[in-house]
Write a structure and sequence with these properties.
single chain; alpha+beta; D-Amino Acid Oxidase, Chain A, domain 2; 3 domains; 22 strands; binds flavin-adenine dinucleotide
């Protein structure tokens, strides 16, 4: 049995941010994650927008932490070498009623502390985003887009460099109380800890109950998306959302350019019964495309290259709809259990302020002694395609593997795939390689590069084909040889 000061359950954006923040102090910290890599939950399935904070109720934790998160996000991404682009954002009005709604949103945003919000007329709308339809809108200059996979990976790598112990493939199945907590994983590992931090996203209600805390009910609410080709440069300079209408608690179907230049359409908002049902369904997807085309008429179905769904961990039941505030607290009846419940949007934007709030709570239970050798910076591996031709040529001279393209759609080289395979966590799934090197994410969906990556894993890293999974055990690519 391992004795730890802190166990964090969940390596999504929130768990990784908490781990990184607490790694500033002399604490023995373990992160337990059931998947085989970071960002296997909600943090890898969202709109990837750094929200400004005008959508959330004034006085709520959501509003406060989002505005604070937005202000610090660019600096954090610079420190951790994560793709980030301050694009600004438009909310579009289609009629006068929408314009009135936007006036109210603007006042709410100003009350929350958002900077630079302004209403725009049709002319300015067209100047900011030429292809967009509408009679006017609201412009938010502080909104940005980022890469949520790179964000989680960077936080976790930085926490690892500062001594945090990450255990992947470690599903928490039992928690006993008594002078702290004794946490058991499905593999039979046991960890004793003084503080237990529940960052389990959609499973956070169950984990709270397991630890002897309140039985929070989480209502899963699915959002489906289309992924479009890398056409944002030509069609969509910034995220464009419709003016908000009362609904079950999403921001409406929007169009978002990603940090890699693709366009996302979505998400829908639909309460579902199974928190692991990530299906993309035909009627919803049809509706998505039509709504997106009303905002950006130049869209064509030929641009679609993929789809995915993410699930909101809502505290608001379907009959209530809308948003309930984040719950972030040490449970009075269960000292030592810090619960983070209902962390839906804008949870990634707010993740670092959430982590600082957890640190404040933790500091009341544990002595927090700062490390003198805390490493604040982390460097991402080289992205060949972002370099100038001269820099590319120099790299190829230094290492010929930079001269061999493995993913043609995204121009990813063999050396970059190797760097991804040799990641500090030893994550060896296709998705682990995909989110680090960005291979398989192009128009051919891995048609060209997947076999080459498999070849490397088998011939150069000694894996059997049957051992290679897409994400986690259960998603193996090969059943066996046929000849
Ligand atoms: C459709 C959609 C769009 C969104 N858009 C945005 C946006 O644009 N901007 C923004 O800021 N936010 C957005 N969000 C919200 C944001 O994605 C979430 O708030 C955030 O990712 C939550 O992170 P998390 O770490 O709490 O949860 P998760 O990322 O789900 O992490 C929880 C982790 O716990 C693990 N876990 C669960 N049970 C166990 C167990 N028993 N043992 C061990 N591990 C366990 C899971 O595998 C998972 O990895 C969006 C969310 C959705 C659904």
């Amino acid at each position: 049995m391992d004795q730890r000061d802190v166990v964090i359950i969940g390596a999504g954006g929130v768990g990784c941010a908490v781990a990184r923040e607490l790694s500033r102090y002399q604490l023995r910290i373990t992160v337990l994650e059931k998947e085989c890599d970071v960002a296997g939950g909600i943090s890898g399935r969202n709109s990837a927008v750094v929200h400004a904070g005008f959508n959330n109720a004034p006085g709520s934790l959501m509003a406060k932490l989002c505005v604070e998160g937005n202000r610090g996000f660019e600096g954090l991404c610079r420190q951790l070498d994560v793709p980030y682009r301050k694009t600004g954002k438009l909310l579009v009005a289609f009629d006068e009623q929408d314009m009135e709604a936007l006036g109210a949103i603007l006042r709410q945003g100003e009350e929350n502390g958002c900077e630079g919000l302004r209403l725009v007329d049709r002319e300015e709308l067209k100047r900011l985003a030429p292809g967009i339809e509408g009679i006017g809108g609201m412009y938010s200059p502080q909104t940005a887009v980022f890469d949520p996979f790179a964000y989680c990976i960077a936080l976790a790598e930085n926490a690892l460099a500062n001594g945090v112990d990450f255990r992947f493939g470690s599903k928490v199945v039992g928690i006993e109380r008594g002078g702290g907590f004794l946490v058991t994983t499905a593999g039979g590992d046991r960890f004793a800890c003084r503080l237990l931090i529940n960052c389990a996203g959609l499973s956070s209600g169950r984990i709270s109950q397991m630890a002897g805390g309140p039985p929070y009910r989480i209502y899963p609410c699915r959002g489906e998306y289309f992924i479009l080709d890398r056409i944002a440069d030509q069609l969509l300079p910034m995220p464009v959302y419709p003016a908000p209408r009362k609904g079950i608690g999403g921001l409406g179907v929007h169009l978002t350019p990603t940090s890699a230049g693709n366009i996302l359409i979505g998400p829908s908002a639909e309460y579902i019964s199974q928190s692991d049902d990530l299906s993309c369904t035909r009627p919803v997807m049809e509706g998505l495309f039509d709504q997106a085309k009303a905002i950006l008429p130049a869209l064509s179905r030929k641009h679609i290259i993929g789809s995915y769904a993410g699930i909101r961990p809502k505290l608001a039941p379907p009959e209530e709809g809308g948003y309930r505030d984040f719950v972030i607290r040490e449970e009075e009846d269960c000292p030592g259990l810090i619960n983070l419940i209902g962390i839906e949007s804008p949870g990634l934007t707010a993740s670092m302020p959430i982590a600082r709030m957890v640190r404040e709570i933790a500091g009341e239970a544990l002595p927090l002694q700062e490390k003198e050798d805390f490493i604040a910076e982390r460097t991402a591996p080289i992205r060949f395609r972002d370099l100038t031709e001269d820099a590319q040529a120099a790299l190829i001279r230094e290492d010929p593997e930079y001269g061999e393209i493995i993913c043609r759609c995204q121009k990813v080289t063999k050396r970059e795939i190797r760097n991804a395979i040799e990641n500090p966590f030893g994550a060896r799934s296709i998705s682990a390689i995909k989110y680090r090197a960005w291979a398989t994410t192009g128009r051919c969906n891995g048609g060209y590069c997947l076999t080459r990556i498999v070849d490397m894993l088998v011939k150069e890293y000694g894996m059997k084909p049957e051992e290679i999974s897409y994400r986690s055990p259960g998603s193996e690519l090969f059943a066996g040889e046929v000849k």
